[in-house]
């Protein structure tokens, strides 16, 4: 499955990539980020920081006010049991940052702390489905990533993401996956960012998921699509590992819920597409209309 891009921006002039735009406008500073922390840790400056914060607030507001999610602000450090519950441990042990003295791990995604909110619980059937949205910084070692695709925001160790997580009855989970996908797409439609949706084949999805969509945004400078969201149905895989159950109305035996999650969305590659699509011939950036009430300005 692939959906075509809905929007085409008329860029009939030499296109600058997000690195050149960020440097010329003084809104991104990867060099100082590398000095402070190392390669892959970006710094947003001035209107760049404001634009990033506005993007996060717009997504949280959209998912909570229009799509019916309850907003959560979770911890960014979790214990090993939380990683195990969502399937990141031990398979991806080499990709997470570990704080040895406290035996805590920096989260690779808000999916981990939000899903584990209900670890070991028997959920009230009347509360299902439960839908959460959460902002978090995300930390990934990206061990073994080298080459030109690591430039700028294309691959970083720290990035921001708004996540969507759902707990559902088993018979409702595949309809819930379509809802999550449509909610992620709604953000790109509102921003007027060209994108496509891919339904991954079984060989390309993780072992813990049963169905997965990737949503990719177009980069005019890179001349390729960049993954900005992944929406997955895990059925009862995570619920079994985390012991999250509910008791159906017509049955005496408890069942495991189904869990789902989707990026709604990750800002790093979305920012690449946004900056490049909204650039002007003069090298400025027009702010998407839906973000202007958050930024307080229309152009950078």
In short:
The chain is α+β, with helices and mostly antiparallel strands and 300 residues long. The protein has 9 helices and 13 strands.
Question: Descriptors for this entry?
Answer:
globular, 7-stranded mixed sheet, BirA Bifunctional Protein, domain 2, 300 residues
Radius of gyration: 20 Å
Major sheet strand order: 1-6-7-13-10-9-8
The CATH architecture comes to: 2-Layer Sandwich
- CATH H-level superfamily title: Bira Bifunctional Protein, Domain 2
Secondary structure layout:
Elements (H helix, E strand, L loop, with lengths): L17 H8 L4 H7 L10 H20 L3 E3 L4 E2 L1 H7 L11 E2 L4 E3 L4 H5 L6 E2 L6 E10 L18 E11 L4 H19 L3 E5 L11 E9 L4 E10 L3 H6 L2 E2 L8 E2 L1 E9 H11 L14 H4 L5
Structure description:
- The protein has one domain (18-76, 107-295): BirA Bifunctional Protein, domain 2 (2-Layer Sandwich), CATH 3.30.930.
- The protein is 29% helix and 23% strand.
- It has helices spanning 18-25, 30-36, 47-66, 80-86, 111-115, 173-191, 237-242, 267-277, 292-295; strands at 70-72, 77-78, 98-99, 104-106, 122-123, 130-139, 158-168, 195-199, 211-219, 224-233, 245-246, 255-256, 258-266.
- β9 (211-219) and β10 form a beta hairpin.
- The longest helix has 20 residues, at 47-66.
- The protein is globular.
């Amino acid at each position: 499955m692939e959906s075509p891009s809905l929007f085409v921006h008329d860029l009939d002039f030499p296109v600058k990539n997000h690195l050149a735009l960020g440097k010329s406008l003084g809104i991104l500073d990867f060099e100082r980020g590398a000095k402070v922390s190392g390669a892959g840790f970006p710094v947003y400056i001035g209107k760049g920081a404001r634009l990033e914060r506005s993007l996060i607030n717009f997504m949280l507001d959209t998912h909570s006010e229009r799509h019916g999610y309850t907003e959560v602000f979770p911890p960014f450090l979790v214990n090993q049991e939380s990683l195990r519950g969502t399937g990141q441990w031990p398979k991806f042990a080499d990709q997470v940052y570990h704080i040895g003295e406290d035996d805590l791990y920096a989260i690779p995604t808000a999916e981990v702390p939000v899903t584990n909110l209900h670890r070991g619980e028997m959920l009230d059937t009347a509360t299902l489905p439960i839908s959460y949205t959460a902002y978090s910084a995300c930390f990934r070692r990206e061990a073994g990533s080298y080459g030109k695709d690591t430039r700028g925001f294309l691959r970083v160790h720290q990035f921001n993401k708004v996540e969507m997580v759902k707990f559902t009855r088993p018979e409702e989970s595949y309809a819930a996956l379509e809802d999550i996908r449509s909610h992620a797409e709604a953000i790109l439609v509102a921003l007027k960012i060209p994108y496509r949706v891919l339904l991954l084949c079984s060989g390309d999805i993780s072992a813990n998921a049963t169905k997965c969509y990737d949503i990719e945004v177009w980069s005019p400078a890179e001349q390729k699509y960049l993954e900005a969201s992944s929406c997955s149905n895990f059925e009862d895989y995570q619920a079994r590992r985390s012991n999250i159950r509910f008791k159906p109305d017509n049955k005496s035996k408890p069942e495991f819920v189904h869990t789902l999650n989707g990026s709604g969305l990750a800002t790093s590659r979305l920012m690449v597409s946004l900056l490049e699509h909204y650039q002007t011939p003069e090298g400025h950036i027009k702010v998407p209309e839906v973000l202007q009430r958050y930024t307080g300005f229309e152009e950078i």
